[in-house]
Specification:
Length: about 230
């Protein structure tokens, strides 16, 4: 989603400084990709090899939507995870220097009130989901609250955002030395991190893990990725 930096009334002047910061439409410089989970087979772009135990992911039709449903399974510690592939292979797809951003429409189905249950955003592809201090920039759901997280592989910066919504649009955006996090309002970040920024090649993952309250389920009907052609 591309938005104007400033809103102008009809016939008001617009200036380059109000455009350039958040607009880059040159296809030679920007790569855009998105998945709605209905335009092609799910397995063409998404890998499920990091699911463990009873964890599974598949496309389901519910509430007039086609969703990918990431279902942890019911045994404590079972994990369901999907990671974005590159040209049909399990690879990292971007780097923080590419100033990537990912936008995810996420529906959380009855998150548990206790324990770490979900994470979604940018991660290094080879590290198992829910590993402590994993390199990445992502949202975490724990105790039915939303957190923004950046990790460099050694330590993390974590910001509590607040309670979860059943359905929301989440965005993670790398911008120079910052990572900005958005929920629903794509112009005003809910958190800005300048510490523990990863310097690793990254992919996009959506993951759930079962806790004592039972299976944890995440659904998504849109994931979009934008990145510069730098690395």
């Amino acid at each position: 989603m591309i938005r104007h930096k400033a809103v102008k009334a009809t016939l008001d002047k617009g200036y380059a400084t109000e455009w350039n910061d958040d607009h880059d439409l040159n296809p030679a410089q920007v790569i855009v990709t998105w998945t709605t989970f209905i335009e092609e087979p799910f397995s063409n772009r998404w890998d499920t090899a990091q699911s463990t135990g009873g964890g599974s992911a598949s496309v389901v039709i519910a509430d007039q939507h086609a969703w990918v449903e990431v279902n942890s399974g019911s045994s404590v510690g079972d994990i369901a995870s999907i990671r974005h592939m590159l040209a049909g292979s399990v690879e990292n797809i971007t780097h923080p220097d590419d100033q990537p951003e990912v936008t995810m429409a996420i529906r959380l189905i009855n998150p548990a009130t206790t324990g770490l249950t979900h994470e979604f955003g940018f991660f290094r592809q080879d590290i198992a989901p829910f590993t402590s201090n994993q390199p990445g920039a992502y949202f975490r759901i724990e105790d039915n609250k939303v957190y923004a997280v950046t990790g460099d592989g050694t330590s993390e910066t974590v910001t509590e955002i607040g309670g979860t919504s059943e359905y929301a649009v989440y965005r993670v955006r790398f911008l120079g030395s910052q990572v900005r996090f958005y929920i629903d309002d794509m112009t005003s970040p809910v958190a800005v991190h300048e510490a523990n920024i990863p310097d690793d090649h990254l992919t996009v993952k959506l993951s759930t893990i079962a806790v004592s309250e039972g299976a944890q389920v995440l659904r998504s009907d849109f994931v979009g990725i934008v990145r510069l052609r730098k690395k």
